[in-house]
Each structure stands twice: as structure tokens, then as C-alpha cells.
Amino acid sequence: MASAALPALAAPTMRRRAPLASFLAPVALLVLWQLLCLSGAFPPQVLVPPSEVARTLWQLAETGELQRHVGESMTRLALGFAIGALAGLAFGAAIALSRLAEVVFGPFFFAVWQVPVIAFVPMLVIFFGIDEQFKVAIVILAAFFPVALAAFDGIRGVPRAWFEVARVYRTRLPDLIWRILVPATLPAVVTGLRVALTRAWVVLIAAELLAADSGIGQMMEMGRQMFRIDVVLAGVVVSGVIGFLLDRGAKAIERRASRWRAA
Amino acid sequence: MIHEVLARPAPAGAPAASGALAIRDLHKSFTIGGAPRTVLEGINLDIRPGEFVSIVGASGCGKSTLLRLIVGLDDDYRGEIRLDGERVSTTSLDRGIVFQDHRLFPWMTLEQNIELALLNTDVPKARRAQIVAEHIALVNLTGFEKAYPHQLSGGMAQRAAIARALVTEPKLLLLDEPLGALDALTRVRVQNELQRIWMTQRSTMLMVTHDVEEALYLGDRVVVMAPDPGRIRRIVEVDLPHPRDRAAPLLHRLKDEILAELTAAPSAPSNLVHLPGREVR
């Protein structure tokens, strides 16, 4: 996090040292965890040593079970995120560009936005059961709000001065949209997409924990029910790594999208 | 000989045949907090083709509003604004403007920013790059075509904005305190550039500034405005050929005159009356 906050200040030497340094904390944690298990302070069923978790992960991967769960979760994420983000973009743009749409939908939107997405789970389960639609629906919801808000803020944030420039040069509407409006709002929208993606992932795992028949979350829930803490922890590691990679990937795209902002 | 002359498009060096601005009985008012407020009253001004006219005045005398009306960003006015006889009602590529902030788009290179002005023209695509390059050269920015605005200094960005405004070859160029945000040294340099550009282009230019010296150095005439409501107090002829010498005694005499006029406004005594009251609080 800290290294991402000051890319401009980071000297080349710091950059080279950074990957090593960032492995320090996780490795220390692993060592501490392993030592704690070896000390025998906790029964091995409760606190499984990291070596055991690694072995379980390997077994899960060998049988293909892990890949199946990850694949299921990722498919839901991709589908739900695509629908939610597109709907969010359209909705955010609509309430930003149309006074009427803002008056009609704005207050409701900003009120619902305050509700934690997880709070919709009971309702969604009643509507959709615990099948595929439910998980996709919750991802759609989780992605929709951040993207809609980012699109709204992004478009509203376009300075009036830039529209005046377009008027002075009599820029045609397609050019105004593609050359001015889209690039001007892109950084805000991409940030919204990144936030939405990581939120959607977290919400999906939570939803799978609560009600599902497959997916990373369900794998963890099954592990808990069968007292396989090693499987639960394997799920924690996998969902954490995937979440981290999603965020990193999105950040890289975000940086590219707002390159020109670097002042 | 004749072919050469005929082959050339619009002669850039010769005085432009068009670009005459006529303003008649111009009134403009805004509604502020439900009450109408007159910002411009009874403005009458004629600008000859190819002339450089400066407008100076205290802040709040409506000089920027006047430019917005002339460029067509605001069409809610009474009276007449005509360019070559045609009434101004909206923006047109015949009228260019340079704002105080350069207003270049940060995600476009210098080249792309200038080319944007040509998007809605009938200039063939093949010619555009050449015209853009010519105008970048005109403002002495050759070599910075691929630079983004944040990589340019304030003076360079403002010169780029001037190039963008000129690339459509407007009959009239409006300059709204274009050098107001620059430091003193850069400002002098860009003033010299502006004078050179005007002398090569010879399009009509109308510049608003709060710098009397700048107004006199560049302007064939200087319009002195008074505030509340904005009106023309006086028009000063600056009878000196271009390029000018900043040290010319005439410029200094006129500067003292105009400054005296601007500072000895009736607002000064009223200020003095109010001051003790403010101090008590």
C-alpha cells in the first residue's frame, strides 16, 4: 500500500529492494504460525500449521477440486461484474447527464448505496434461491453501486471550462463524447471499476459462505462443517491471493488510464 | 508573378479584409439572488479589421463578460454585436478566444490539442498536420509536439493555447487576460511573442487585461472601462508603430494618465468613507 502511494518519490534502489521487503511480513507471519503450532499451545485440529495447509492446497489442486471451485467463483464474478459494471455505468451517466433522471432516481440511489450489499442476501435468497442467479445477482449489486457513483462523480466533475472550449471550436457531439467526455471521466470510472471488482469478490465469497453449492466460499464452509480447518485456511489463502491479484491488475490498468494526470 | 499571388490562399501578411467588430448599445445584466444587476451598460465600440485593441479596467467592470458575449458563449444580451455585419448569437470559428487558464486537455498532446480546433472544419485531413505544425512553429514550440500540457511551463501552455485559437484562422481573436497567470518575466516574453504573432497574422485582436502597461504596449487603442455598471470611460489612441519600444516616453505618459484615471475613480472616496467602519469591527 505504502509503496503504491509514492511511486513518484521511490528511487530506483528502493524499487529494487521493495519486492524483497514486501515478502518480509508474510514470511514472518508464517514462521510465527508454524512455531505456535509446534509449541503445542493449541490442539492441531484448531490451529493447523501452515505446512499442513500447503499440503491440503496441493492435494486440492491435484484432484482438480480447487480449480473447479475457483473456476465457479471466477465465472460468477466475471458475469456479475460485467452486468453490474455496465448497468452502473449507464445509470451513473444517466443521472449525471439528465436533471430529470437525477431528481427521480438520485435520492433513492444515494440511500440504497448506504446499505451494505450483504444485507440484501436474505431477500435475494428468497427471490432466487441459493442457485447460480443468487450469486450472480449479489455480484451485480456489489459492482453496480461503486461504478454508478464513480460514473456520476466523474461526469459531474468535468469542468465547465472544457465544455466551453468544445463550444468555441464547435466540436461535434461524437467528438465531444469520445475525445473529451470519455477521457475526462475515464480515471474516475476506472477507479470505480477497481473498487467494484474487489468489493464484488469479497461479497461473492461471503455469499458463497452463506449459501452455495460450489465455489471457494462453499469449499470453506464445507471444510468448517467437516472440521477440516486446513481446507478453510486453504480457502482463505486462495481467496486472499485472488483478491490481491485482482486489485493489483486493476491498479495497473488504472495507472495507465490516468497517466496524463501525473503533474 | 500574378500566378504566385493568386495561388496563395488568404494573404496572412497583408491587412485582413475582414474582421470588423461593431458593438452598439450593448446591455447585459445578470440576476443575482433574484435581483437584476447590470454588468454592462451602453457599450459602443468599433474595431477596424486587423486592429489590436486592449481593454483595461478594475475587476468587476464586466470586461470578461464582454468577451464572452462577443465569442458567443453567452447570447443573453440587449443591443448589437456584429462581426463583418453579421449578428453574433452563438460561437463561430470566425471568433477565437484564449482564456486566462490555457484550457488545454491534459490527456492530449500539444499537437492533438491544437488539432482539436480543426475537427469541425473543412480542412482536408491530409492538410491538418501541416497546419498544426505551422502554428506550433508560429508560437515557437517546435519540438514539443508530443508533449502533454503538464510537461509544459505556464508560458508555453499559454502559447500553445494561442496556437490552438489561431489554427482556425479566426477573423477576430479574443484574449481574456491571457497572460494574467504568468510571472513577470514570462509575461514580457509572451507579450513580445504576441506582438510578433499579431504582426504576422494581422487578424483583429481584442485583449482584456488588468495590466495597463501591457494594454498600451500591444494595443493600437486602449479602451478604459469603469465598473458598476461596466461602461466605457475613455478610449486612448496609442499612435506608435509596431514593433514598439517599451521605453517609449509616450507609453509611459499614457500609462500614468490611465492609472491616475483608474485609481481616482469615484469608488476611491467611498472606500475611504467605509474604511473606519470596517476597522471598528
UniProtKB/TrEMBL annotation, chain B:
Gene3D superfamilies in the record: P-loop containing nucleotide triphosphate hydrolases
InterPro entries according to UniProt: AAA+_ATPase (IPR003593), ABC_transporter-like_ATP-bd (IPR003439), ABC_transporter-like_CS (IPR017871), ABC_transporter_ATP-bind (IPR050166), P-loop_NTPase (IPR027417)
Residue ranges constituting the ABC transporter domain according to the UniProt record: 21-252
Recorded superkingdom: Bacteria
Keywords: ATP-binding, Nucleotide-binding, Transport
Taxonomic lineage: Bacteria, Pseudomonadati, Pseudomonadota, Alphaproteobacteria, Sphingomonadales
Annotated organism of origin: Sphingomonas gei
Signal peptide (from-to): none
Protein name per its UniProtKB record: ABC transporter ATP-binding protein
UniProt cross-references to SMART domains, sorted A to Z: AAA
Record family assignment: Belongs to the ABC transporter superfamily.
GO MF term list: ATP binding; ATP hydrolysis activity
CDD domains named in the record: ABC_NrtD_SsuB_transporters
